[in-house]
Amino acid sequence: MFGIPLLNQDQPEPAARTAPPAAEAFETLSGAIERGRHLALIAAEGAGLASLYAAAAVRDLAAGEAGGRAFVLTATVDRARRCAARMHAEARAAGHGVVVVPGAAAGAVARAPILVGPPASLLEGVRRGDIPAGALCTLVLDDVRALEPARAAVEAVVQASGEGARRIATTHARDAAFDELIGRWLPRARRWPNELFAELRAGEPEAGRAAATPIAVASRATREGRLARLAELLHDIAGRTSDERHAPGAGGAAAVSVETAPRAVAAVRAALSLAGLHVVAAEAAGPAETDTRAAETDGGAAVRVGAWGEVDAAAHAIAFELPPVPGPLARTAAAAERCYAIVDSLHERQLELTARRAGLRVVRLAEPAEPALMDDVAAFRARVAHALEQQDLASGTLLLAPLIREHGAARVAAALAGLLRMADRPSPTAGETAPADARRVPPDTGARRATRPTWTKIFVDVGKRDGAGPGDLVGAITGETRVAAGQIGRIDIRHNFTLVDVDSLVADAIVRGLNGSRIKGRQVVARPAGLGKTPRQRREP
């Protein structure tokens, strides 16, 4: 994060959590930390923020009076736990404990010098008298944008902290609200990195940004998942280079380079070898040797794996895990024909910031599966994954916090998934059941075809007059049959009726399932369109 190789402390590596940070790791901001200055940072998880918070808290606790406190405000309890775990070793080495609130016993909260948790939980402790706000020497606002739903509680904690506390604020995306907060609560704060603070404000022209070199990025939550995606990508590159080599006039196979953290090199080489790829050491193969060895394999390029900066840029360069500084991305983008990155899902935002510092832009790496060709369960999972990437989850997390504390995140998520899938299904009245054959529709063969479906238009005698919307029609079809949402096309809702395009392979099953079902309280009639008009349809203007 700070332009030095050792600061990427947020990566989930055992050595990064247990070894105290080397002095040079904080070279960029060490002066500001020692002087107790306020700090304003544009960074995200994966940038070493937890180690920075720990260093500032330890310094301030040592410089202040006995009984001093440090608060780290996070948007969620989950983020609080991750942050506290990465602060623990550095704080303990200085003789200080770290406690996550809520969840800790009242006595532990009253004694611990470093408290990490959502603003509302810490504010409650202050108001009860468990936490003396007047003793606060360090206040951290971790990801101000994510904290926005709890803005009132954040403001109350900041006001309670008084003027003597050092304040640190971070954000993954600078905006007017962040600038306003710095102006009010962090006067003369040390800002980092300068190149991101100096970027153009929202609404101003971004000349040249669209032309920046792209880096194709994929993220996975587990190391095993990232290694599998890396092997999948390399097989794909090997297949393409094989086709290019056999094209008329083509040269030798293009080299592929993979750069990663030094302690991860051996594990990456082993995983790729087990996946059947031709792996060579970074220093063991020059261009000529690479071409010769690749020609001996099944047509793919040899893969050179090494630590950051050890591998010469190749035609295809891949960063595995988050680079500690912008340098590796800038160097490979300047020399490679195509650049890729595969990172922890938690580190994707920091990768975007690192790329922007290097003058690059991030694009999503195409995934092999297409939601439109999945069955309804896989399509639902794809929708949830999309929501995890695109939506601001902080407000929803705060809303569900009491349920999560009582029942656990997994059970709450399972209950919400069931509610979402049942929300649009009509409730049958007493004694009514869907036709038995409607619930025995053959498996979604259309969703597994390689070609697009052909469409059949179905007439349903419910429309705007009945208050029906697209969700009602989709819910009725998927609820009364086993048809996937991907097999439902255009929905044209008229005043008294609706026309729905459906996959021709399941049109008959949909008609059987909908006939006699209820939509918006009305028992409906469904049939293929064009087989004669009902009285309601004839009255349609």
Overall mean pLDDT stands at 76
Helix proportion of residues, in percent?
A: 25-40%
Total of DSSP H or I helical runs spanning 4+ residues? 21
The main pleated sheet reads as: 7 strands, parallel
- Secondary structure tally: strands: 20
Structural class: alpha/beta
| General shape | globular
Q: Reading side by side through the largest sheet, how are the strands ordered?
A: 3-4-2-5-6-1-7
Rg (CA only)? 29 Å
Which residues form runs of ≥5 with pLDDT under 50?
A: 1-25, 202-210, 246-252, 285-299, 370-374, 428-452, 532-541
End-to-end gap? 65 Å
How big a fraction of the residues is strand? 15-25%
Task: Name the features.
541 residues, 7-stranded parallel sheet, 21 helices, 20 strands, globular, disordered C terminus
In short:
The chain is an alpha/beta fold. Helix 5 links the parallel strand 3 and strand 4 (114-117).
Account of the 3D structure:
It is a single chain. The protein has about 550 residues and is an alpha/beta fold. Helix content is about 40%, strand content about 15%. The chain is built from 21 helices and 20 strands. The strands form four sheets. The protein has a seven-stranded parallel sheet, with helices on both faces.
